[in-house]
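I would like you to help me understand the sequence and structure tokens below and explain how sequence relates to structure.
___
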Amino acid sequence: MTGNNLIPATVLNRKAVVYVRQSTPGQVQNNLESQRRQYELVDVARRWGFRDVEVIDDDLGRTASGAVDRPGFERLVSGLCTGMVGAVLCLDASRLSRNGRDWHHLLELCGLVEARVIDLDGVYDPCRPNDRLLLGMKGSISEFELGILRTRMLDAARAKARRGELRLSVPIGYIWHRDYGLGLDPDLRVQEAIRLIFSRFRELGSARQVLISLTADNFHFPSF
């Protein structure tokens, strides 16, 4: 890791990018402390001497496992390729990527343009072998952690399924009943609404036509 006095002026004159990400929409809504800490990295960048700081938060609610597109991450990579980015700031390696390919590709780009990677522990220069090794280990640990979490979740779901206790999310208007399993919501208004929707679908044969028909009838599905 390097100190503040070792960040060249040519790097400080470029833009610092704060990358903000949370894995799921639920985290975006409920885990506000993580968001706050990530946005506070703007102050960290300024303390290290960067005057131009950009926040990329396009990937809030998107996993970094490589399973979905991340437009924010792609914008970050594009900025690095142009040489305009002098530093990338993240709360930890998992914010940037839990996919080894993406992580090492990012480090390679940072090394090519002499950009720094900054987290709460300090500043890393991917051009330095020791820093590159440490960053590589952080990325590998993050990827390994994701595999462990997936395994634990699947094992827990299988155990519940074997006991007959696994409950998956059900569509609005249905509930899990302790005695007989899946059933309609006990609210009679909800039951009537669901039966009307299915009846209209049998009549029209298209979900789009059902929506148009119910909208024309000023139909309002009961809210929860």
